[in-house]
Amino acid sequence: MNSSLANLTKNLGDNHPITTEYFKKQGYTTEQISLAYRKGVFPYEYITSHDRFKETELPPIQEFHSVFGGKISQEDYEHAQKVWKEFGCKNLGEYNDLLSQDRRA
Asked: DSSP assignment, residue 58?
């Protein structure tokens, strides 16, 4: 299987009855569920201390880079901003927890 997680997620299409039911039971809105199906981005290398998780806004786009994945696109950053807003994240720790929960579903 030689494909990125983003491509695999995209190839699944829009029909995810089991995952959709899981998210509905968690109280997510239709918009939130739709956002959750797209692979999220996180500034892993930006997290240099636990205090970073307390920051109350997303870091700038240039902080979303990795030695493995390179820089993210403007579209990916805008998606991250939309996810942050739609889910009401109060800090980077909540955003991290949200992405972790989405990956487990």
From this structure: P
What are the helix and strand counts (H, E) for the chain? 5, 2
Distance (Å, rounded) from C-alpha 104 to C-alpha 19?
10
| Closest residue by Cα to residue 35 from 94, 96, 97, 78 | 78
Beta strand 65-66 pairing with 70-71: antiparallel
List the chain domain ranges.
5-104
* Cα 47 from Cα 50, distance rounded (Å): 7
Question: pLDDT tens digits for 20-73?
Answer: 888 899 899 999 988 988 889 999 999 999 999 999 999 999 999 888 788 999
Amino acid code (one letter) for 103: R
Alpha-carbon distance of 95 to 93, in angstroms, equals 5
